[in-house]
Specification:
Layout: E1 3-8, E2 11-15, E3 28-34, E4 37-43, E5 49-56, H1 63-70, E6 80-85, E7 90-94, H2 100-111, E8 117-124, E9 129-136, H3 137-146, E10 151-154, E11 168-174, E12 178-185, E13 188-196, H4 200-213, E14 222-227, H5 233-238, E15 246-248, H6 261-272
């Protein structure tokens, strides 16, 4: 079984059950800013999640510099290949009508993009669409300064992978304050949205509303869940009483059982989309 190491009250660590020095086996590193935490994941050369280290934001102005300096996975900056940023302000634009300036304006009209934010885009080639999203400028710039070779991607990118055969599937990914929902029908993207939530009932309501709007049988709908930290696994389990077909992960990947199953599955999915 994997180890959970509480080496510091300010972070939690997942470590795969491997022999030898785990950090020396890390070939690639992802940094993910989501909710109120920074997550750093290390992968083997074959793509296995070896370790996940979660750093909750503590409000101190030197948070990034301190953790970039002290985090063992970030010692070799060249191994940091991708940076994933959550983006509550987002918009899907069909490729047929996409124009960069117009899409940025549409995003601003819907969500208001402030001076401290920057607009990025991500191509959904199979779905023939562009994912336009806003990120915090200060956090993005400091990440680029420390990891200039890393590619910036939206946190939701993993939800646009088509590695399933179910005709109707809802992907549901939790962060501390938001849930990312993506609906596919017959392997075609039908709907994507980011919702803020306070209780699990808020999430259940949004899914039930979606089922009514899209004429879905909620008892037959496959719901695949992930989360960015082990602390959110309990929230996913709370949804089981509402949706009988809800699962953590697809069952096709080697994901350990326990509270770290949801974040390990998430990072496996993030790896599969790069």
């Amino acid at each position: 079984m994997p180890d959970i190491i509480n080496s510091n009250i300010d972070k939690q660590v997942y470590a795969a059950d491997k022999k030898g020095n785990l950090l020396s086996q890390v070939d690639k590193v992802f940094v993910c800013l989501s909710g109120n935490s920074m997550h750093v994941a290390g992968f083997s050369s074959s793509g296995e999640v070896l370790t996940i280290r979660c750093h909750p934001f503590d409000g101190r102005p030197d948070f990034f510099e301190r953790n970039f300096t002290n985090e063992p996975l970030l010692t070799h900056t060249g191994k940091v290949s991708h940076i994933f940023l959550t983006a509550p302000k987002q918009l899907l634009v069909p490729k047929a009508i996409y124009k960069e300036d117009a899409a940025a304006q549409w995003l601003n009209d819907l969500h208001f993009v402030g001076k401290g934010e920057a607009v990025h885009e991500y191509a959904l080639r199979e779905d023939k669409a562009q994912y336009v999203f806003a990120v915090q400028l200060a956090a993005r710039d400091i990440l680029i300064r420390y990891f200039p070779k890393a590619r910036i991607m939206p946190f939701a990118a993993h939800q646009f992978n088509k590695n399933y055969k179910t005709s109707q599937i809802l992907q549901c990914t939790f962060t501390e304050y938001e849930v990312y929902l993506t609906l596919y029908k017959d392997r075609k993207l039908h709907w994507h949205k980011v919702h803020e939530y306070r209780t699990i009932e808020d999430v259940a309501y949004q899914i039930k509303l979606l089922c009514r709007q899209q004429d879905l049988d909620e008892e037959q709908l496959a719901i695949i869940c992930a989360a960015d930290t082990n602390m959110l696994t309990r929230r996913i389990h709370d949804l089981f009483s509402y949706f009988p077909n809800l699962k953590i992960g697809t069952g096709k990947m080697d994901v350990p059982d326990g509270p770290w199953k949801a974040p390990v599955y998430l990072f496996q999915q993030l790896y599969s989309c790069v």
